[in-house]
Specification:
Helix content is about 15%, strand content about 40%. It has about 270 residues and is of the alpha+beta class. The relative contact order is 0.15.
Length: about 270
């Protein structure tokens, strides 16, 4: 049975490694191409894939902070994972995606052994209709390739809101999302889904504005059992903008399982141009 296209895009070959990390060889995949380079979620997913595959890795992701330092060209790259420090329950990693002599993506990550302790949540999952009751978004085949790799079931603030060309102060998007074709959710795929939102400034301005993510931080709340419970079903992806000034704005997002489990939260800083 052929690999899912996401697994093809995540394929890495370990070139060398030891107790302090590894060097991996990979290559960009046309299925996750954006307008001028790979989709940012794909890039974050590659870093997560390298971490989860590293034989030195212990525990599961708690956070991943990525800065997009330079454009990624089509073709080969290397990913370098380095274990910075560790305790009995945590690991701190440095991860870089490099093309030639250029560090294109720079990141730090925290992995940990999760323990069964008391917990609660100060945020509630939005009350939205289930994915099965909403129409699937019909995507224009002219859109960037990566968009075709997801099935979207928008409830609020979808692509159609931008297409109407009407500026708004409501930058909230609520949409169910899953990989296309369906695929069991794992940490790499969850990292990618944290970036499936178009820039919030599109909604504010009611039009497409030159923009691109320069930094993305993901906090993982799901453990392996929570991901297994999601399986191939859609997750609820919610995003809103925060502040716009000086050519940069931030937007925050939450990813929920259908059972109300908070899987991940993210915040990203986006560059924009008048």
């Amino acid at each position: 049975m052929p690999d899912h296209v996401f697994d093809e895009a995540m394929r890495l070959t370990r070139l060398e490694g030891g107790e302090q990390g590894s060097t991996w060889q990979g290559g960009t995949h046309p299925a996750y191409w954006n307008m001028v380079g790979p989709f940012g979620g794909y890039t974050a997913a590659i870093l997560m894939q390298a971490l989860m595959t590293d034989p030195v890795r212990q525990g599961t992701p708690v956070s991943l902070s990525v800065t997009y330092a330079a454009p990624i060209r089509e073709g080969a790259y290397t990913v370098q994972t380095r274990l910075v420090s560790a305790t009995r329950s945590t690991q701190h990693w440095s991860v870089q995606l490099v093309q030639g002599e250029t560090v294109a993506v720079n990141a730090i990550a925290l992995l940990a052994q999760r323990r069964p302790v008391w917990g609660t949540r100060d945020i509630a999952m939005p009350d939205v209709p289930p994915a099965a009751s909403l129409p699937r978004l019909e995507l224009d085949p002219k859109r960037p390739a990566w968009v075709q790799r997801y099935a979207f079931f928008p409830q609020r603030g979808g692509f159609d809101a931008v297409a109407r060309g009407e500026p708004t102060t409501d930058t909230r998007t609520e949409q169910w999302v899953r990989d296309e074709p369906p695929r069991p959710l794992d940490f790499a795929a969850l990292a990618s889904i944290c970036d499936v939102f178009f820039p919030r400034i599109f909604l504010h301005r009611g039009s497409f504005v030159p923009a691109g993510t320069v930094a993305l931080t993901i906090h993982f709340h799901a453990d392996e059992a929570a991901l297994a419970a999601v399986g191939e079903t859609p997750v609820l992806a919610v995003a809103k903008g925060v502040n716009y000034s000086g050519g940069f704005f931030d937007q925050e997002a939450h990813i929920w399982g259908a059972d109300g489990t908070l899987l991940a939260a993210s915040q990203q800083m986006v560059w924009y141009k008048e």
